[in-house]
Amino acid sequence: MRYRTLGPSGLRVSELILGAMTFGEQGGVGAPPDECRRIFDAYAEAGGNTVDTAINYRDGQSEEILGELLAGRRESFVLSSKYTATRDPADPNAGGNARKNLRASLETSLRRLRTDYLDIYWVHVWDAATPIEETMRALDDAVRSGKVLYVGISDAPAWVIARGQTLAELRGWSPFTALQMPYNVIDRDIERELLPMAESLGLAVTAWSPLAGGILSGKYTSSEATGRHKPADIDERQHAAAAAVQKVADEIGATPSQVAIAWTTARSKAIIPILGARSLAQLTDNLGTLDVTLTPEQVDALTAATDFKLGFPHDFVNGIAPWVFGKGYLGKE
């Protein structure tokens, strides 16, 4: 396992992040505590040092289990959690990105995780009802209190993130160091605005669902396959992407999961994949991506497997570039 700094910060994180959304059995299929320990220990043994959770994962079980697993070794890990999701549906102030919920959510997460600080605290989802100015200042207060070291944002529009970053720079507040977004061979929406923005601003992108909910793992090639998705619900586009991943996997002697994860990092230096596993076997397979290197031709073949388009204004602007610049047109980089 190699390490890198997280975005513009000096925080050193491993090149694969362990996602703990599967830690706990509350609210559906997940991993029991004993299996969570095996997963966590295997990740740590492989050199992984960065763990991601959220206040609402498994109704709080994920944080509680991580608190137990980190006992006696907290300082060796980069620990992150998220807030936004409601702590109490009956309380109108128990959810969202306002200062009040941030404070209460942070205290709840710290208590469950048995720590007095988080390395990274994430805004989990954009809350259009809360001004980004309030959220950025509240995050800065959390950093200044020593309870949070760095901040990031997940699942938000590029313009919101850019505005928040500009406000932080202008007013001397703690800026975002990273984004957390879905990214895989099938789901490439972040290529329109979010990924170019992150690359321009020097932010890291921690990519969740690199296997598209298991579709790219090869498990749905049979009509009788079982998992999160019903085989009948997987469309032709998704099947085509999975087939392309399988083809490359067969060519290089890797598993589809390893190839799919390797594609995300090959697409951008900003990307750091998040591994979500319900079993030690799944994690071990996913860690095998560390030994996979795709050729540019293989990366291009996987990229071409989906009919993804940037849309307006990107395709339009690119299309009229020769007309705009004339002899000064340099072509696409």
Automatic annotation (TrEMBL):
Keywords, in A-Z order: Oxidoreductase
Molecular function in Gene Ontology: oxidoreductase activity
Residue span(s) of domain NADP-dependent oxidoreductase: 15-305
Protein name: Oxidoreductase
Pfam families associated with the record: Aldo_ket_red
Keyword NAD: no
GO cellular component term, pick one: cytosol
SUPFAM superfamilies membership: NAD(P)-linked oxidoreductase (SSF51430)
PANTHER family recorded: NAD(P)-LINKED OXIDOREDUCTASE SUPERFAMILY PROTEIN, NADH-SPECIFIC METHYLGLYOXAL REDUCTASE-RELATED
Keyword Oxidoreductase: yes
CDD domains recorded: AKR_AKR9A_9B (cd19080)
